[in-house]
Amino acid sequence: MNLQSKVSRYSQEFDPPVRGDPITADRYISKEWMAGEMKNLWPKVWHLGGVLADLEEPGDVIRHNFAKESVIMVRQEDDSIRAFYNSCPHRGNRLILADVTSVPRITCGYHNWTYDLDGTLIKVQDPDDFEGGSPCGKVHLSELRCETWGPFVFWCMDDDVAPLHEWLSPFPERLAGYGIDNWVRVLNLSADCEFNWKIIRDNFNESYHLPTIHPELATFINDGLPDTLFEMYPSGHNSMWMKGHQATTRVDYHTTEVPAPLDQVARAWGIDPADYAGHTGDLRAAVIEAKRRLGPERGFANYAQMSDQQLVDYFHCTLFPNLTLTMSPEQLQVLRTEPHPTDPEKCVFQHWCLYPPIAGMREVETPLGTVPLRHDAIARHSTYGDGVSVGFVADQDLSIGTSQQQGLNSRGFKGCILPGQEKRVQRFHELLNDVVQG
Ligand code: FES
Ligand SMILES: [Fe+2]
Hints:
Naphthalene 1,2-dioxygenase Alpha Subunit, Chain A, domain 1; 26% strand; binds FE2/S2 (inorganic) cluster; ten-stranded mixed beta sheet; Rieske Iron-sulfur Protein; single chain; 2 iron, 2 sulfur cluster binding
């Protein structure tokens, strides 16, 4: 099926065909679909478990609750990191009950079985009461794969999935120039939501909603087509390059004065916005030049490795199935939805923001305003709709989730009708069909 439209711009290299599978409501609603995902999808992908900043010393532990599962990542005495299912081999009790902690050994709160950091059982009550002798040294926590990339630690339940760096392809290479290894997670936000996890995945797989849901982005992000470039990779991941430091071409800002907030950005880089009145699109190139010239003396050592595009544009990397990394030179946003343990019409939304540690910089501009530049300066979990922000653009995306979920439940909804620019949505669901239904 050809969803290639005349207005959308797909890279020639990364534009696989789609079949046109129907996208009906059952995948957002039914327990059978949810069970299929639990069985065939979630074990087959790498999951972002946390940031290495929480695993500095031996005994540091991150717990990641995912649907009904819970995984712990533990820094070892030899500095490696291992991941275990958070379940006691004795009779199944969860071992670690905090999101982040530090322990000399892993001790179960039920009967006090105690495990070394490497998962080996080292102490039980009444060791002589077991047939065959003490289980110590013989029993181990159930282990799963654990690998790192940049500032992140990942886990995976399946031994046949490709190693993490290969699975992430092409992003380790594409994002190398940003130099994210030492970036600091300043915002760590999450919220319980009343919609299926795929509602927000679909949202991140298209930019069709920007004029309606995010109208204020139009003065500094060019969401016009065909200025935006879409790529869909063999790995199943995809990306969207959106020009930044340039107003949208959907509306005529290009022959006017430089609109706010671009005028302020121009001044911050020593550029007089008046010089760009009537040709505001040229400001982007001027900012590239200014960043190259002034960036190093302002502490942005990472600019030197970035391409011109990376210096000014937004690179939205959407990994199959549920992880988005939105890159700009000064901010990395992690946006993710994870399934609810039992209800297909609920999910957990997560939003982390990471920033490069620029010498002398104490604060950063975040989607929650100005925040101190330190690890987890704001960390909180909320319920969407209770008035607690998860970041202003993300709030806008989430605002549509509940009403879309409700509408999908209608007998009158017959399946999605997609324009060419939503081809990534189509491909996402076809990959999902292949994985979940076989
Ligand atoms: S369930 Fe953990 S010690 Fe009994
Ligand atoms: Fe959005």
